[in-house]
Design a protein that fits this description.
Length: about 70
């Protein structure tokens, strides 16, 4: 299982925002982790959700590593 953040970037796109807009609330290395699908803390997820006024399920999804995309 792994967490995928494509929903976050889709949400940003639908709101006509850029990934770099997240730099208002998270660091550049954390943004890079999200872009690469790396692990981030629940505090980071909460911060992003507060900033975007959304729920964690709106920005991330748990997927089986064996699933095809």
């Amino acid at each position: 299982m792994s967490i995928k953040y494509y929903k976050l970037f889709d949400l940003l796109n639908r709101r006509e925002m850029k990934k770099t807009d997240l730099l208002e609330v998270i660091s550049a290395p954390t943004l890079a982790k999200l872009s690469k699908g790396k692990t981030v803390t629940t505090e980071v997820i909460a911060t992003i959700c507060t900033f975007l006024d959304c729920q964690p399920g709106d920005i991330m999804e748990n997927q089986n590593d064996s699933s095809t995309q």
